[in-house]
User: Fold this.
Amino acid sequence: MLRTCLLLLSLPLLVRAQATPPSEPFALRHTFFAGVQLPLSYTAGYQAQFSRRFSARVQGGLIVPPFDRYTIKTLEGFGLDHQLGDAIDRSFQRGTLLSVGVNVHANSPWYAGLLGQYVHLTAGPITPADGLGLYFKRDFSAFGLLASPALVFEMQSNLWLGGLRIGRAFLFTNSHFGLNLEAGLGKIFATRNTFASNRSLVDALGVTQQLYSDLDHEVDSSLRKNGYLPTLDVLLTYRLDGRP
Assistant:
């Protein structure tokens, strides 16, 4: 009797065990994406999810108007020097970025991760009035000689950022396509800024080299101190995992 009762009690567990298929091994997921990283750039990249919990990503970006203006205004909102912001805003040419990161995935469409980012910016022509304004924190545009286009210089800025992101994936029904929405916060932790004028003889002067060194220090200090950059990414994704 006891054996019969135990058998009857165990029947639901046996049925459930037979109805539950064994978990399948995880297949590597390849995802390509493209979209906008507001207020920074147009972006595109690739992500490899190599387990149910972890993925790695690499992406590139192109910084062109109007993103440059929005980026400068965002940095100024965190305290970036107004003279520096105006000088870059008036003379911005182009920018590129490269980003790598890792994500941790939950048992849901949500994920979070860490990222590292390299940004290259080119600005110019910058007048001596702008350069002196950065150094002395004053407006020298009223001095006609200093604002003359006869002597201008270009600035190349290399920025290194670290940050966090949180995102959610939306998969389209019966499709390999999807949409990812991400919010991130980056912090500039290092910069390198170089300058060159349109007059090689002027660049060779010791006083000019000292001015360039001082400007590098001023720009670096301002960007590292106030260089917080929140972003909102809207990414169209295409997943290559053999299944829609």
